[in-house]
Amino acid sequence: MNDRTQLLKGTLEGCILQVIRGEEAYGYEISEKLRMAGFPAVSEGTIYPLLLRLEKNGLLTATYRDSPYGPRRKYYRLTELGEVALKDFYRQWRELVSCVDRLFAGNEGE
Amino acid sequence: MTTFKELNRKNNELHHRLNDENMEIMTNMVVYLRSRLSDFQVELIRQDLLDMALSAQDRHVPLSEVFGEDYKKFCDEIIENVKRRDGLWTALDWIRYMSLGVAMLALYDCVLTKRVLDLWRFVASGAHVVPAYPITAGFVFSTLAIMAAAHALVFAIARHAFETHRLLTLSRPRRFAIGAALATLFCAFVLATYALSKVVLVRISMYAYLCALASLFVLYGLLSLVLKRRRVPIAGSW
Q1: Which residue of A93, B6, B96, B145 is surrounded by the most CB atoms within 10 Å?
Q2: How crowded is residue B235: how many other Cβ atoms within 10 Å of its Cβ?
Q3: CB contact under 8 A, A73 and B51
């Protein structure tokens, strides 16, 4: 339980979907938005394999565009399947949070 | 429309914009990725990694902060999450390398065994009987051994791209032992090839041999053309 990264790992994919829900974004933008939301030590490198996995599973799609640094940059956008997965993730997350809250609230008097 | 060849050229240009330290890290990652993914898949990933690396370099951020301290682990995660195996193209690429390898070795055999002189004498004399070309067990053995060794060497270098410093830090007796083992293997290979070169498996017409040789070079050229002209997707649906 002392490794916070393990706790984050499972939730990061859902949070990436939420970040790109409104508008498409590229890796660095996504990592910055996650960092601004309070996720510690989330770099482009941390989320790149996750983005590949989400793309592989059809939850998001990517388009290449020119970038100021030279290489074409990959912009990610949510698919319909991704929208469904995001709703599903949030529902499960709320259930989990309320379970944990109930458990801790019940133990407070002890 | 961007082709694989153009993407490769562009990536090579961008690679040289990296500073020495970042260039070494990027080279190791690309070499390691090639041990498990096709050249095409690696080139697409390399494009993404170069974007991250160049933008980090511009922000004066070390690559360890972007990719994490463990580059091998980062590459393993990429390999695990790549969309699909590039089976058909990987097979075509393998056939391309094999055809070039076998063609080059067949050409060396023709030159080193001086069979090329038989052809020259035949052409010069205007004789009607086409000279025969003996396919020896030595040629078959050396071709298979060299191709297998080449594949094993490339795979070993790629898989241990992040550990080359370990080889350099080995103790002197260990390095000597590795060198001696390799030298022994090489001597055994030369002796076996020499002994087997006296065993003729089949004799074919010199024309047939040269046609097969030319066909292998043509196959290599055609496959190179197809692979280099493979379209790079605008959307990331690869």
Answers
A1: B96
A2: 12
A3: yes
Are A53 and B81 in contact (CB < 8 Å)?
yes
In the stretch 86-105 of chain A, residues with CB closer than 8 A to chain B read none
Q: Give backbone dihedrals phi and psi of A21, rounded to 5 degrees, phi first.
A: -65, -45
Percent helix, strand, coil in chain B (nearest 5)?
Answer: 75, 5, 20
Q: What is the CATH number of domain B4-84?
A: 1.10.1900
Binding-face residues of B in 51-90 toward A, CB within 8 A: 51-52, 54-56, 58, 65-68, 74, 77-78, 80-84
Where along chain B do the CATH 1.10.1900 domains lie?
A: 4-84
**Does domain A4-107 match CATH 1.20.1530.20?**
no
Q: Does A57 touch chain B (CB under 8 A)?
A: no
Which chain A residues have a beta carbon less than 8 Å from that of B36? Answer: none
Residue B60: strand, helix, or coil = coil
- Each residue's pLDDT, cut to its tens digit, for chain B (238 residues) gives 788 999 999 999 999 999 999 999 999 999 999 988 888 899 999 999 999 999 899 999 999 999 988 999 999 999 998 866 678 888 998 999 999 999 999 998 888 877 777 777 777 777 777 788 889 999 999 999 999 999 998 888 888 888 777 777 778 888 889 889 999 999 999 999 999 988 999 999 888 998 999 999 999 999 999 998 888 876 554 4
Helices A27-36 and A4-19: crossing angle in degrees, nearest 10, is 120
Residue recorded with tokens 């032992």: B177
Interchain contact A27–B (C-beta under 8 A): yes
Which DSSP string corresponds to B29-42?
HHHHHHTTS-HHHH
Q: How far is B238 from chain A (nearest CA, A)?
A: 9
Task: Spell out the domain ranges in chain A.
Answer: 4-107
